[in-house]
Specification:
With 311 residues, the chain is an alpha/beta fold. 37% of the residues lie in helices and 23% in strands. It has one domain: UDP-N-acetylmuramoyl-L-alanine:D-glutamate ligase (3-Layer(aba) Sandwich), CATH 3.40.1190. The chain is globular, with a radius of gyration of 18 Å. Bound molecules: adenosine-5'-triphosphate (ATP) and alpha-D-ribofuranose.
Amino acid sequence: MKKSRIMVVGSINQDIIFHHPIKNTEIGTIYGGYTMANGGKGNNQASAAGKLGADVIMVGCVGDDEYGRRQIQALKKIGVHTEGIEVKKDLPTGLAYVGLKSDGTYCSDNAAGANEALNWRQVEDALEKFPCHMIIMQIEMPLETVYETYRIAKKKGIPVILDPGPAQKIDLQPLKGIYIISPNEDETYALTGVRPDSRKEAEAAACILKEKCSPEYIVLKLGKKGAYLYAEGKGELIPAVSVKTVDSTGAGDTFTAALGICLCQGMNIYQAVEYANGAAAICVSRQGGQPSIPEMNEVKEFIKNVKEKKL
Ligand code: ATP
Ligand code: RIB
């Protein structure tokens, strides 16, 4: 099968993962461990798309520093094209402090650094060299770049998946007609004012998103519950695969990348969400964000085993 060509437009961060929550009120030193990991929502999604088997180009910005060089090298190692990444002399690479909670979920504090310089002209330039089947983006970058990327893609007829993270209340009107919007629970709340804690609330939130930007599909990422797909006027919960949660960092990014690739490969939206749930479940069952992203063969095997167990 021919490889899908995917462009990821978004953030690149150095993650410092504290093995304890970072937003606590204790004063003093906490004697806990930490690990360094490559991160940023865009970087994670490009890395996931590469590992899952697509031909990927990353469009983003890093600083002229060790952290930035490390991110570029890691992407190259997976085979992701990095010509779309600009190195900014006067800004540092984005930094994220990620604090793990005891249930495997996390919160993070980010400093945008070079991500704030990501410009839509980079998207235009990259598309000249790398025509693609799909664009995946998030909102950890200037909003102008998000809107302009969509405008450019629409003009060229390229479908766009928006993962609207981190949670922010943004105007969705300029994204009218987008292929897929796929927020997690906090992002859904920020965009719609409705927390999707029940099916009824998920449907209400999906209807608001439909009203605001008329996407073809809405896929709400609901953590350990799975994903709520709203397609052709109907909503359905597609349950997560049950695993022991170790670290959910990057689960949403893995989910979004897998969703995109599966659709590019011709799966229908229901199958694509099922595979995305599988890829993300593998990711949460291991430590770290990018290091836990599986390859497509592992996801296929995993889904096959889950189905066999159900029989
Ligand atoms: P991130 O921002 O770290 O990339 P997120 O908060 O956007 O993640 P979640 O909503 O937590 O993403 O999860 C994304 C997907 O990962 C879910 O839709 C589900 O498929 C899978 N997932 C998350 N948590 C679990 C879990 N505990 N068990 C199984 N699957 C999970
Ligand atoms: O989605 C996970 C990512 O969000 C982390 O890698 C961190 O960099 C934050 O931006």
